[in-house]
Amino acid sequence: MKKMIKLTSEEFYNVQTLSKINDIIKRGYSYKDICIIVRKKKEGMKIGDYLTQNNIPIISSEVLQLSSSPEVILIINLIRYHIDSSDFNKINFCKSFCELNFINQPKEDFLIDILEKSFDDIRKYITIDDFNIDLKHLNRVSMYEALEYIIDEFKIMKDGNAYIQFFLDFAHEYTNKFQTGLNEFVEHFEEKKEKLNIINPQGINAVEIITIHKSKGLEFPVVIYPYANINIHGDLNPKTWINIDDKSDVGFKKSLINVNKDIEKIDKDLFSEYRGKLEIDNINLLYVVLTRAQKELYILTNKNTDTKGDEKINLYSGIFISYLKKINAWNNSKLSYDFGSKSLNKTEIKPSKNLIQNHITINSRVKQNIIISSKNSNSWLNDFEYAKRKEMFFMK
C-alpha cells in the first residue's frame, strides 16, 4: 500500500500549476499563451523558481526583478553593514540570513540575540558548512572580487542562480564604466534596481508571471490563478489615517497608523470603514482575475472550512464554495470542478526557447552555473456567472 504524501501549500500550488501548463501545451497552446496571475511577487517567485527547475520557460518584468531576489538582498545588506555597522544595517542583513534559512533558530529569537553581538559572534549562528567569511577581505580586493567572495562564502551559486548571475553581469558592466568601491556600487544599484530584470521578455515564447495589479486591462488566452485564497479583510500594508485631537500639542491634524484589532476599541467607525474599503478592493481584485482569460481560466485554491465544516466567507475559497453550493454543484469530497470543456488549439506552435540552457564559468572559485539571458457576495457570484457563461472556468 502506497503511503500518501501530504503536500505543503506551496508544493500544492507549484505541482498543480506545472500540471496545468503541461496539459495546456499538449492541447496545442504555446507557452506565451499562458499567464500566471498572483497577488504577491513572492508567490510568483516561488512558482517561477519551480517552473524553471522543471524546464518551463518563464518571463516576468515584476517577479524576476533583481531586487526581488533574497540572495541579492543579502549581498547588498551585508555590504551596507560592512560600510556602516549600525544596528539598523545589522538587523537588515541578519533578516536576510533568516530569509535564506541560514539560521537554525526562530527569527525573533535570533534578532534579539544578535543586538549586542559583533559580526564575529554572529557568524557562529550561520549553519553553512565551512563558513568563515572575513569582512576585512572586502577591503583588500576589487569591488567585483568582493562580490564573488561573498557569493562563494554563502554558496548561493552552488545550484545555479540566475538572479546572482545577472547581478554579477550588472556589476561587471559597472566596473567597466566606473572605478569606484562598494559604497558607490550599492548606491548605483539602488538607483537602477527597479529596471533590472533577469531577462528581456520581448519575442520569447514563455509563460508570463504577473501580479493582479499589473494585469488590469490585459487579456490572455489562458490564465492560471494560484494562491487564490485572499482574505477579503486582509491588507498587504495595513495602515490608515486617524484624526488627532485639536487639543493635542503635536502640531499635526492627522497621523498614519498601523491597523489591527485594537483600533476597533479606539475608533469603531474608523475600523468598520477601513474593513469595508478592503472588501471593495478585494472584490475588485477577484473581478480582475476572473476577466483576464479569453479561453480558459484555472483557479487553484485551498479548501478552508471551520470546525463545523462550513466555508469561511471571508476567504476567496469560501466564496468559491458558496457559489458551488448555490448552483447545487458542491460535493465535500470533490476537489476539482470544471465548467465548459477543454479544446485543442489549432494555431502553429513554434519551438520555445528554454531560458536556462546556457552555462557560464565565472572564475576559478565559482563553479559552472546556470545563466538566464543577461541582457459583497453578489458581486462575487456575478463574476463567477460571467466566467461560467464564457465556458472558461476550471477550479482545483
Give average pLDDT, whole number: 80
Number of helices: 14
Q: Estimate percent helicity.
A: 40-55%
Approximate strand percentage: 5-15%
The secondary-structure class comes to: alpha/beta
What can you see in these coordinates?
The structure is a single chain. The chain has a domain at 66-195. It is 42% helix and 11% strand. The protein has 14 helices and eleven strands. The strands form three sheets. Strands 2-3-1-4-7-11-8 form a seven-stranded mixed beta sheet, with helices on both faces. α3 runs antiparallel to α4 (87-99), α7 (143-154) runs antiparallel to α8 and α12 packs parallel to α14 (377-389).
Quick tags:
396 residues; alpha/beta; seven-stranded mixed beta sheet; two-stranded antiparallel ribbon; 11 strands; 42% helix; globular
